[in-house]
What we know:
By secondary structure, this protein is mostly helical. The protein has two domains: about 10-115, no CATH class; about 120-175, no CATH class. The protein is built from ten helices and two strands. Helix 8 (about 130-140) packs across helix 10 and helix 9 crosses helix 10 (about 160-175). The mean pLDDT is about 80.
Amino acid sequence: MGKRKSMPSKKKIKDYWCDKLNSFKSFDEIKKDPFLYKMASVDFGEPSCWACGYYPSSDSQAKKSKFLERCHIVPDMLGGPNSPDNFLLLCKECHIESPDTKNPKWMKKWFVEKKNFFIGEYERTATLTKEEMKYALDNREEFFLFLSENSGCHMTNKHWASQTSLDLIREFYEEGNNGRES
Length: 182
């Protein structure tokens, strides 16, 4: 068995995708490819899972990026290259869940269809108004700070309970719109 090739750093992977997206002349070109369109929604400045959007809300910035894993689009064991264009940065849960196939279309399909951890849970309950959800998404950074300051997680769970998040989205929306509605 041959020696495994070294993988690119997380920074090189991030830089590759940033450069690739910036190489397009217009956003309309990116919108034609669902995979690139979702990649364009990644906040490359904030270490978060590119598939589900999860990121730790505490710890220092340096520690936050350590939870991300380099995930092959086409696995090394199936002949995938160890070049930045063959990697995504995912949380452990998404890395485990992602498909390991020779054909990159299955990974890209999974990636495009993967629900944001923030939204996926809520679709089951469908109790939030569009305005509440839009406000939380439009103010994502402030919302995650609000969420971390006003809630906790059970045991070693990395994600907030669905109901906790739902209730705090409502509260965040109410506080943000306090006095704005007549």
